[in-house]
Amino acid sequence: MSGHAVVIAGGGPTGLMLAGELALAGVDVAIVERRASQELPGSRAGGLHARTIEVLDQRGIAGRFLAEGQVAQVAGFASVTLDLGGFPTRHPYGLALWQKHIERILAGWVEELGVPILRGREVSGFVQDGTGVEVRLADGGTLRAQYLVGCDGGRSRVRKGAGIAFPGWDPTVSHLIAEVEMTQTPEFGVHPNAYGTHAFGRLQYEIRDGQVIYADEGPVSVMVTEARTGATAEPTLGDLREALVAACGTDYGAHSPAWISRFTDATRQAAAYRDRRVLLAGDAAHVHAPDGGQGLNTGVQDAVNLGWKLAQVAKGISPEALLDSYHAERHPVAARVLRTTMAAVALRRPDERTTALRETVAELLGMDQPRRHFAAMLSGLDIHYDLGPGHPLLGRRMPDLDLDTANGELRLYTLLHDARPVLLNLGPPGGIDIAPWADRVKPVDASYGGRWELPALGEMPAPGAVLIRPDGYVAWVGEQTRQGLTDALAAWCGPPAAG
């Protein structure tokens, strides 16, 4: 039986990001992925939001994604596109990029970090004990791990095996998505009608002046509302044709499907993100309608919140209690996503009263304050972890400041490339002693002449110092007492070293 510090079930974006985070911390991690190859059929999720791009920038890999995707304003609500122009971020936009490309790029990064991906294998069960988890594989093999993380999707075997409840709401609407050849060319774009919402396009496209321009030929990407919910069998070409005729009056001669899939607005969230040595992230922890494109982004950010905490616990730096903060911080974030997507689905209903409500919401989103509020929420730029009373920056994302240091000018996010905590001192050099944590925390003396700005807080003077967690969130602010710094270092970076 081979062993690892952490085994991750599932090699989608969440599992890959988590593996990268653990590998950066020097943790022995392996991914078990049921797909035999990296190739992902279909288009699936179609982009990254601003905060996710920032997270990738914190690890020095955002450029890989920006080189292949198309910058666009992808945040939207109630049929209103929410422009991030003027927001305090280097990435005031989203990135249009299909999930299969996001996965491929992440897999390349993870392989560079030396993480083994066991393809064509699947977790079938596990048994926990006081020191670890025995992970059983469908082919009869076993793995031993200190911790098991389920990143294995909405039907997660890991979640079910741990006995973690998955409460929520059953679907009210069902959609088929597919990539097929068509003898007739439909009108591209999104077309709501009394039957539901349907859309057509092509995987090959470009964005010009904010408009999507599709390729002139190739298979057609289809999304169409089904007449019923609750189907459990794999969808067929016959199901797709039937739904197209009902919604559009014709099936456009659909034939030769490359793939067909189904999604619904089923909305559920794990009651707990951890059961002793088993944890959940991504769709294993929360499922919802795809409105707003938040699922993949929420999962990747789950991974970045969990990765450094799990690494410190697995390496014996921090006590297991640190893992409790993962649920405490990420469960409320996903709960808000669930609420927002349920509202978006409700606003898509075609009846006249809902149309009136949708138009009213759109009118509100035309006003600056509501627009900025929703844009910050959907893009992830306003996430605020409750770290207790203190400075308003506490628990918020750290802006990517331009800093002057003894080694020259640099961007703050470059200090986070190795996923270590950073104590940024903006006061007199050498004024803060962190010797008991010198092996874990990177001290940086720098100056910054400007003012900070955050979406929820506006502009404010730069504080004297900040402790920045590996996930880029502020854990301590210099206006607090030095004892406060000692407490924050112990809480987030482990007890002080002996002597």
From TrEMBL:
A Pfam family hit: Rng_hyd_C
Keyword annotations from UniProtKB, A to Z: FAD, Flavoprotein, Monooxygenase, Oxidoreductase
Cofactor (UniProt): FAD
GO MF terms held by the record: monooxygenase activity
Oxidoreductase found in the keyword field: yes
Superkingdom: Bacteria
Domain FAD-binding: 5-340
NCBIfam families recorded: PRK06834.1 (NF005303)
Stated name of the protein: FAD-dependent monooxygenase
Source taxonomy: Bacteria, Pseudomonadati, Pseudomonadota, Gammaproteobacteria, Lysobacterales
